[in-house]
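Summary of Year 1 activities. Much of the first year was spent building the evaluation harness for sequence design. The harness presents a backbone, in tokenized form, and records the residue chosen at every position. We chose the following record to illustrate the format because it has been used consistently in internal testing since the harness was completed.
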């Protein structure tokens, strides 16, 4: 295929993509609109692509006015600026030539040429300054808008991954971070463990001291867990009064040790209700610990941690149980057989 044929084929593809997006956005297929989105798919203008991507990710409505602004800022004005720069370069070449001739010949007749050329440059410079001022003002406006939208996106992303009550990662963030940790583990071969931590008799706290006291205990738990982990460890609110801790590069035994430290730390706390100044007293937690087996679905590790947590609850609470404890009944049955 010749270069011309490849160009024509690419143009047809870009045109179809452009028209499809224009129809999807519900705007007119005017030359301005077509030019904007053709340039978008052509991907030769990074700033235009970034601006449109941000607007679309924020579900911003596109109309002829919005497209006109994009065209002015990212399509038309760069061409105008390029033209100004070309003309300015030509004028500079003319002045250099005139000055060179004047210095060689010393002919006063060239002095008028110099003055005329300088006046032309000054005029062009003034025009260029005006155009540049306009461009800079528009650039500032668009840049501010893009920055605001980017900040909004980042804020929305953080809010979507953060538990509103505690400020730590929420369940969605936990799932995402656990997948990332598992991928790293698969690549490095390092250990990966996790904890499921549940506040014992939490319903009693709500019933006896009110839901504000319950919220206080939840925040206290989040702070306690955060203070007891370090480095790449991730603490998340798993749901209700239950928390999860992701422990990259951590063996099961070390994860169990950390779980015991957390349990002892919580057990030593004396909690007083902030809104009623009533003594809530001691709180305890039960913890389930599991370790990732390379290649297994993450749901299986979570299930083992949950089963170990249930074993700690059914065993009297204020306990730490690991996935190894789940094998004890099986070992006993094998011994009897």
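For this record, the design step produced the sequence shown next.
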């Amino acid at each position: 295929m010749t270069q011309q044929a490849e160009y024509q084929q690419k143009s047809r593809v870009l045109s179809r993509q452009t028209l499809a997006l224009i129809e999807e956005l519900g705007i007119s297929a005017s030359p301005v609109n077509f030019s904007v989105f053709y340039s978008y798919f052509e991907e030769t203008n990074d700033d235009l692509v970034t601006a449109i991507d941000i607007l679309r990710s924020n579900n911003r409505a596109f109309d002829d006015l919005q497209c006109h602004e994009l065209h002015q800022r990212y399509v038309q004005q760069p061409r105008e600026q390029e033209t100004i720069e070309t003309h300015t370069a030509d004028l500079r070449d003319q002045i250099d030539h005139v000055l060179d001739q004047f210095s060689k010949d010393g002919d006063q007749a060239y002095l008028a040429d110099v003055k005329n050329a300088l006046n032309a440059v000054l005029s062009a410079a003034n025009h260029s300054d005006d155009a540049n001022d306009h461009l800079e003002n528009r650039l500032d406006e668009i840049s501010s808008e893009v920055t605001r939208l980017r900040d909004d996106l980042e804020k929305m992303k953080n809010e979507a991954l953060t538990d509103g009550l505690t400020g730590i990662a929420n369940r969605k963030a936990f799932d995402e971070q656990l997948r990332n940790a598992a991928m790293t583990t698969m690549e490095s071969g390092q250990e990966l463990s996790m904890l499921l931590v549940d506040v014992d008799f939490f319903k009693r706290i709500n019933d006896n001291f009110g839901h504000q006291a319950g919220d206080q205990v939840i925040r206290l738990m989040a702070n306690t867990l955060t203070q007891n982990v370090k480095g790449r460890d991730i603490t998340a609110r798993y749901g209700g009064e239950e928390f999860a801790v992701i422990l990259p590069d951590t063996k099961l035994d070390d994860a169990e040790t950390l779980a015991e430290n957390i349990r002892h730390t919580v057990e030593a706390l004396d909690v007083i209700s902030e809104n009623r100044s009533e003594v809530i007293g001691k709180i305890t937690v039960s913890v389930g610990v599991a370790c990732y087996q390379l290649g297994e679905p993450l749901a299986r590790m979570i299930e083992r941690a949950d089963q170990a947590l249930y074993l700690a609850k059914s065993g009297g609470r204020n306990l730490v149980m690991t996935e190894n404890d789940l094998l004890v009944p099986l070992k006993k049955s094998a011994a009897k057989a």
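The CA atoms of residues 286 and 314 lie 10 Å apart. Quantitative recovery figures across the full test set are reported in Table 2.
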